[in-house]
Amino acid sequence: MEAMSEHTYKQFDIELESLRTRVLQMGGLVEQQVKKAMQGLYAADTSLLEAVVREDARVNQLEIELDEACNQVIAKRQPTAIDLRMITTVIKAISDLERIGDKAHKIGRLGLALNAQHTSFTPDVELRHMADLSLEMLHTALDAFARLNVTAAAEVVHQDEAVNVEYSSVVRQLITYMMEDPRTISRSLDIMSIAKAIERVGDHAKNIAEYVIYMVKGLNVRHATLEEIDREIANS
Questions:
Q1: What is the mean pLDDT of residues 71-85?
Q2: Using CA atoms, how far apart are residues 66 and 89, in angstroms rounded to an integer?
Q3: Where is the PhoU domain (predicted)?
Q4: How far is residue 77's CA from residue 98's CA, in Å, rounded to a whole number?
């Protein structure tokens, strides 16, 4: 009986590790999707933008498969404590990763629309830095998940404000352009939608980081201030 119990426990560990690995693979895919969307946008590369739009179906399928795998583990193993928190984190994280994939899809679709209008994407507003910040947040959040690193996760939560500041700056610039020249309204609105998609990538990365803190420490920090998060992590 003890041997069977030990075997079952080891199998459970293998299943949990498989879930963690698959989350990171999905995370790597959506990270590449956002990168390719921004590259295609600035290069007016229709083939690259089309690939981003097309590959969104793969991201959606991964979410479905991982969600089902989590449900199977819960039904079969009835996990408790940190194991249950880990599976809950996976379920929530894959939802946010799927939404990041949606944002890459949106950027790709809007980039294609601009190309179809023969409007090259060379705006006076700068979106690449905001995209780099959001992608850095996503990468760090995934790394924090892989390493169970709450300090890195907290850093992601802190970075979100920088993305929000950049987004607000972009919106103000675009509103100024539209007021000064109504002919820029349609294009400016598309660019504003792209900027919002980038800002949302950061939001979803922040969510994942908060899930990591919950998984490791059992702390729900979704509605906490930055100071409260730092204090909770330091004292836990």
A1: 92
A2: 12
A3: 24-109, 127-212
A4: 26
